[in-house]
Every structure is written in C-alpha cells, then in structure tokens.
C-alpha cells in the first residue's frame, strides 16, 4: 500500500472492507447447512455446525438431531462463535479507527492482536468439529466437509492475514501520513 504510491486517503477503507467480507463469510459458515455432506448417491447425510440430518433413502424425509447434546458439539459451536464475535468487534473498531481523521496507530495494532485471538478461537472450533464428528457420528457412504466448512476456514485465514496487516501498518506511519520526503535516485552532476 505504501511502497507503490497508493494514497492513504484512497485506500484507508480497504482493511475495514476486507474485515466486512470476513464477517459475511463467518455468517455464511454459521448459518450454512453444508459443513458435512454425502458425496455420492444416495445423498443421505447433511450436517451444519448445529445439527446433523440424515434420511433413510433417496427422496425420504430428513430427520435432524442437534449436535448441542454432545459436549464436543457445544465446544465447537462456542469456540467458533466466540471467534466470530471477536471478528465483529474488530470490524466495528476498524470502522471507528479509520473514520477518525487523525489515525491512532497503537489502536490499529490492538485490532490486529484481537484478530489473532479471534483466529485462535475460530481454528479451535474448526478442528474440534471434524475430529469429533467423524469419530462419534455414524456415517454411511462417502462424506466430505463441504462449502460452509470451507467458508469457516476462509474466515479464519482472513483473520490471520488481516491481523498481520493491522499489526504491521503502524510501522509505516510516516509514509502513510506523508511525513517522509521522497527519495530520488538521480543526482545531477
């Protein structure tokens, strides 16, 4: 952002925008029913973060069972939800930080640290879920962790990457605010 001449006033909303996209991906992961799906016919199993649904044969009625009856189900949902709530808090703080005319760079570094904490919680939930689900829930046929689970991992990866950006941005404070004289490589004889 700094090295290639992008102006701070034009690019100041890129990081909050990326955090907003991460929040949207987190909502999709929380609400999506595609954490686990049957990969081949007959499609008899489908699961979300909250429940596991199966049907006896193709075209039958789905019967769903809540995963909140399992301790690991509550742990996976709670840790991922805590990570998501921290992400939403970081999004709100980023909007506040970048809306102020005088940018507070220590405040931005704190947002980066909070994003790393959110990533830890999200990854804990994303690891607990498949490990315990595949050992404690009976599955038939070939199953795959699907699109909503992928959105969960995308959110966690975005939290890590944006955490680095928010932590490293204060190192370029003078360049961002335009307090550095340009360096010219040509010198006249």
Q: Can you describe what's shown?
A:
It is found in: Cell junction, Desmosome; Cell membrane; Cytoplasm. The chain crosses the membrane at residues 12-32, 77-100, 107-131, 151-172. InterPro entries: P53_induced, PMP22/EMP/MP20/Claudin. Keywords: Apoptosis, Cell adhesion, Cell junction, Cell membrane, Cytoplasm, Membrane, Transmembrane, Transmembrane helix. It is a multi-pass membrane protein. The protein is of the alpha+beta class. It has a domain at 8-35 and 71-170: Butyryl-CoA Dehydrogenase, subunit A, domain 3 (Up-down Bundle). It has six helices and five strands. It has helices spanning 8-11, 14-31, 71-99, 105-136, 147-168, 173-177; strands spanning 36-38, 45-47, 51-54, 63-66, 143-145. It has a five-stranded antiparallel beta sheet. α2 (14-31) runs antiparallel to α5 (147-168) and α3 (71-99) runs antiparallel to α4. The longest helix is centred in the middle third of the chain and has 32 residues, at 105-136. The mean pLDDT is 83.
